[in-house]
Structures are given as structure tokens and as C-alpha cells.
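G., the chain you wanted modeled:
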Amino acid sequence: MKKKCTFFILLWLCWYVGAAQGIIKGKVIDDQNKQPLPGASIIVDGTNAGASANLSGEFELNVFTSGKVDLKISYLGYKPSTVSVEVVSGKVTTVTIPLRNESFEILGVTITGQLQGQARALNQQRTADNIKNVVSADQIGRFPDPNAAEALQRVPGVNIERDQGEGRYVLVRGLSPQFTNISVNGEQIPSPEAGVRYVALDAIPSDQLSSLEVSKSLTPDMDGDAIGGSVNLITRTAQSGITTLNGTLAGGYNNLMKRGNWQGSLQYGQRLGKEEKLGVMLNISHYTNNLGSDNWERDTRDNVAEPEEHRFELRDYELTRTRFGSSATIDYKFNPNHQVYVRGLYSRFTDREWRRRYVFLPADDEVEHITKDRFEAQSVTSINVGANHLFGKFTLDYEGSYSYATQDTPFDNEAGFIASDVASDITFQTDYPRLSSTHYLDNTLYSFDSFETGHTFAKDRNITGKFNLGIPYQWGGNAGLIKVGGKVRFKEKSYAITQNKYEALSDIPDLSFFEGGLLDKNFIGNRYQLSPSVSIPSFIRYFNANPQNFELQIEDKAADEALESYTATEDVYAGYAMARQQFRKLMVLGGVRYERTNVSYQSSDVVFAPNGDLQQILPVSGKSNYEFFLPQLHFKYSANELTNIRLAGTFSYARPNFDQIIPAQEASLEDQIATVGNAALQPVKAFNLDFLAERYLGTIGIISGGFFYKKLDNFIYTRRFTGSYPLNSATPIATDLLITQVQNGKTADLLGVELAYQQNLNFLPGALSGLGVYLNYTYTHSSAIVQRNEAPETETLNLPGQAAHVGNASVSYQYKGFSARASLNFNGRYLSATGATTADDIYVKDRMQLDVTLGYTITKQWRVFTEFMNLTNQPFETYAGTRNFTTQREFYGWWTRFGIKFNILDKTK
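Predicted structure as C-alpha cells:
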């Protein structure tokens, strides 16, 4: 009762001090194309009262006086303006403020598109209360980045993990993907993948987005489960009554696969009606990519002193990927003070994979020839319904959202054949191991081993409701804002699997009987030879016609399905209170956020008899709950309109993944390995300290530098150790297995330095004035205390996923209608997973990729372009322990796209 009374008293006081004299509701636009200018700064002349424009260029400004006031408006790349507005006590005054673009003239040709996008992003960064980076749609279009993950790799301090050469997961400030939350239009979206929380951003086309925001310091009104950062993907909204129709049509070529790809997108937007109250924005895109990779791998589990006994693999991948995206926003403005909206996003990513591999087993003098045919589809649906209200004494916004993600694998077929007495002697070298013979190419020597079929389905659903109440006030002539809010999110996540394994009951033809499919005659630059692999359709026809020749392994099926399937629920309850106070040039923002999480799950425990046979399957359930109070404090000192100094101290946390807390235990006694869940896994807690100084340049650029520090408790890492199976059993059925389990470490420290510089060099003479540079570099050092095996001793390692060096370097040039950009993306080596010993620690080697974009603007509405990606043919490489013990090299070749972009404006209005 005391808490409730205190809350209502505070609310009443806020209401009392928030009795504003008048409100200015306005919009800042470009005076030529009428497009909004997000991030514009608006200041009441002679005071420190001000506001910044949102993504629609709109702002709200409380003025504690009546009569005429002068508003000073500034925006990078535009001429400053002063506008007089008459403020009426107790009423809302609306105003539209056009600004004139300070166009940069290069040999008589006006450059607009690229500079406008760059200005839009930098203005939003400049006026933000917290430390964030913004990438606008125009900037995304200037790099050859087809999905959201690859667009984010250009942001300072952001690294990405790739799959088959394409960006997939985002790592912010040296922390693994699970430390970063992903939102669409401000609300977290679920992950379509079976066991994790983080979202693979290769599923979301970059051309669906208006902008990308990476918040590196949290405010109390943001979700607290983001230690690395919070990524917000913002879809497009109609901005004016002018009809916009934009699109792209492109085709391409993959050098490794000698096959094409194509892309198409179309966007329509307009505000309808005489007063433009109804806004409609529709967006659709499709991308088909034929790609592949050449790969060799070696095993590190065997005795390192005897490398000739190591398992060695040759892997040849062929893939067809599609990426479909659609989004829509419909909003209605009853008047300048009240607005409702519906936003929707749907993306579908499909991956058809054919994998052909040889597995050389020198210790057994055997070679396995295995072919896999799999189709996987991921989809994400997000719908947000909400409203924004401006009343005389407070602002109120609320939203309900529904998001649903699935990963459906309707078929996963794998046929394996094995040959004895044909293994080659292997000489392991750093770059390319050598095989002593080619006997393994004779398909008549391979007899049937097994045939596996599978179907999996994962789903994740979020239902969310939230509200925010803002109450402006004035204290000693200084403007302030009190803001409170609450949120609930109900999650349901599940994973179901059907897994069948068949072995032979009678004679089955050798591999040569089933030959078919693609044969790569230039595998890894023709350093290795391959023979025709199994045609899966041919094998399935034989399987269906001769079921009597196969035996289903019932125990394996039951154990696999029980161990991996699960259902889980997670309920999150959150509330916050914060205040934002301006003291002349200093802004102080502080508050606290409370979050409580309740988790429950159901899965199965598989019990094996001492002889290794399946004994029984038992249902198992569990639950946990935890809560966090997260204080946040931000300082922003604006020395002048172009210079900010920022300091933030915040607390945050990261939840464990679902597949990590399900207590499943799965083992291969033949390979002496096991994977064990950890129901006792705790969330990671963190204290974050951030400092940043930034100077914005009049030529639409920025130079910035700062440092960040993070103190992590209970950090999560993958531990590999030797032990018995089942783990913690009084009667184990096997000993000395290599066990993999995710565990909590003790403490970890992470310290980094972040530098960025970008500028258009229009001050250079003549044609050189078209040059521009984009540079950023982040250095990160971490120290984490971990434990291996059962010994009490601990050791210090880098955090998994933390690269010491990450950076981008890009040089652009524009001359008349011609534009060009060469971009380098670099990340240093990082620890991927810890092993049973330091010699088994897996590291990903450093990587540098060169991309080039060329374009020519035919008219203001039409532009042709071509893009070249991975011109350095940069492979994915890993090593164990030391750099000369390479464990994997995977090559993707280079690929290109060429096409046309159009931007049609209907100016009939």
C-alpha cells in the first residue's frame, strides 16, 4: 500500500509541475522534396528548452511562457533557420518548418542522395540522448549488402558471423550474438531457430528497412537484456502526399558455382486525403542466390602427437537461397496530437543445401562418402498496433505487438556409404593437406552404411503490451521530462523433431548404382579430386521400391527425438521510471528499470542401461525465475551545436538460450563425445561504462572517439572437458568422453576503444572534391576466468567471440553522374570455443573482405549500378591452439550483381 501511495503522490506531483503553458507541435522537412528531416535540432532561442525531430521529422516542444518565441532549427547539411511561433497558453500550436539543402556542387552537378542519407543518420546520432549509431536506407544502398546483418557490419564496433560467406549473426563490441537483442520497430522479435534467442539477420532483406539503429548504451525505457547492444530495425513510413515509387531490378553471377542470382524490390508510399491524414507504405522484395563453397576440415579430438591419425574431410556445398520480404505501415493522424498506426513485417528465408563430403578415417583405414539433401525455411512475422497522444500536460503512447517465427525443415535426407582399405596417407600442411593416393575415387568400393531422414519444426511466439507516459516540467528555468512505463511479454517456444535412421537388412547396390548430381571438377582450385556422389532422388526411389532391404533403428529414433524436442514458456514483466533534465549545455538522464522473468520448460530424460542400450524415456520439467533492478545514468554535454561529450553508466543482463537450460544429455559412445544441458545456468549480469566525444563536420561528416568498459558476472561460455556419461550419474555407462556443456564462468572484464571518421572532401579542388572517406576502428581486450576439466585450477582467456581488432575502410568518389566505392571490412581472430586443453581451443582466423560498388545516375529517377563482393576470395579459417594447426578452410569465390534502381515521384499534387 505504501508503494502504491508513493507512486500516486509522485504522479500527482509530476502532473502539477507539468502544467505547461503551451505546446509547439511541428515537422521539419526538406523545402524541395518535402521529405522529413529526422534528428533536426529545435531550440527555443534564449533558453535551453529544445527537442529533436523523430523519424518522421516531427517534434513536440513544451514552452513555459505565452506569446511569440523564436525557434532555432539546425540540421547537418542544411542552412540553419529561425522561425517565430505564437504560443497560446494551454493550447497546441502546429508548425511546418522547411529547411534548404546546402547542396554540394561538383563540377556543376548537385550530389543529393548519398549526402542526404548520410546527413539523416548523423543528425539522429547527434541529437540522441544515448550513445547510438544510425545507418539510413540511402547509406545501406551505397554498400553491396543484401541483408540486414551485412549492412550492420559497417557500424563501428560491430562484427558479424557468416554462413556460406553471407552475414548471419551480429556481434556488438566483441560479445557473442546472445548478448545483443534484435528489435523491429522497437519491439524484440523471436528467433526462428530451435534453441537460441538471437535472430539470424540474413533472413531480413536490407531493402525493407528505413534505417538501422545500434544503441550501445541503454536508457531505462529500453529492454534491459542487451549487454553488447540493442539493434533496432525500422521499417518505412509514408511521409508526404507526394506519391513515391521506388524499385530495384538486378541480376548477378557467382564465380565459384558459375551460376546466376537475381533481385527485385518495389516500394510504394503516400499520404492520402486533403489533409494527408492517412499514410500508406507498402514494400516487397525478393532475392534468389545460387552459391556454394569448397571446404576441407580436420578433427582435433585425437592425439595431437599423431596427426596422421586425424579425421580429415573434403566438403563440397551447393546451395540455393531465397530471401523474400514484405512490410507495410498504415497510420492515421486524427490531428497533430493524436495518431494510430499498424506496422507489419514478414520475411521468409529458404535454404536448399546439397552437401557432398568424404570423411577419411586413417586410424580405421576407411573412407566415408556421404551426401546430404536438405531444405529449410525460416520466417518471421511481426505486427505492431499502437497510438501516440499529445495532451496538454503529458504525452502517452501504447502498443500491442504479435510476432511469430518458425524454422521448418520438411526434409533432411542423408545417405552414407563406406569403403575399407582405401584410405590415403594424409600429410597435414597449414594450407592444404595432401593425399597420397586416389583410390578413394572408385565408387564401386563403397558399400551402403546408413540412410537418415528427418523433419524438424521450431516455433517462437511473442505477445507484448507496453505503455509510456511522459510528463514535461520546468525546474529553475530548465526544461525536464519525467517518464514512466510498463511492459509485459509472453513467449512460447518449442521444437519438434522426427528422425529416422535406416541400416541394411540385405544386400544393397554399391555407390556407383546411385551416382548423380553435380560433380565439381575444380574443387579447391583442382587441388583435390572428387567422384560422382549419391543422387538422393535416385536413392529414395530405390528405398521406396525395396523397403524390405532396410531396418529402422528404433532405439536411435526414440532417443534422438526425445532428447531434442522441448516446449518452453517465458513471461517477462517490466517497469521503469526515469527523468531527463537539461542544465544549459548539460543533459542528465537517469532512472531505473525493473525486469522479472519466469521460465518453465518440458522435455525428456533418456536413460541408457549400463550396456549402452536405451532403457527408458522419462518426462522432465523445470522452471526458474529471476529479477533485476537496472539503474541507468547518462550525461551529454553539448559544447556547441556540433560537439558532444557523452558519459553513461548502465546495468544490463543477458538471458541464457533455451537449448542451454534444457537438461538433455546426448552421447556418441563410438566417437567418445557427449553434449549435456545445464538447467542451473544463470543469466549474465553486467555493469557498462561508456565515454564518447564526437565532433560533427559541416561537410556532413563526423570524427569521434571513446572507450567502453564492461564488467560481467556469471558470463556464459562453452566448456569442454573429459568426464563420464551420463554426467553426475552414480552408475555411468562410459568414461573419458569429451563432454560439451555450457556453463557460467566467474567474472570477465572487457575494455575497448572506438574511433570513427567520415567526411566528404568537397573542399578539395576540381574533380577531387567528389572524394569521400569512411573509416572506423575498434580495439577490444577481454579477460575471462574459466575452468577446464574437474580440476579446481582456473585460467584466464579472452571471451569467446571477442576479436581484438574490427574495422572498416571505405573510399567513395562521385563525378557528375558517376559514383564508385571500394570498401574493406576487417575483423581479427577470436576464440570460438574452448577445448578440453588449450591445444583444442578453436579460434577463427582474421578476415578481410573487399567489396566494390559502381553506379551511374542517368536522371534523378534512374540509376544503374554494379556490385562486386568478396573480391579477395577471403576464406573462413579456423585453427586449434596455434595458428599453424589449421582445422578448417572454406572458400566461397567472388560474386557480383548489376541492375537498375528507380525512384519515381508523382508531382501532380
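The longest helix spans residues 2-17.

Shout if anything looks off.
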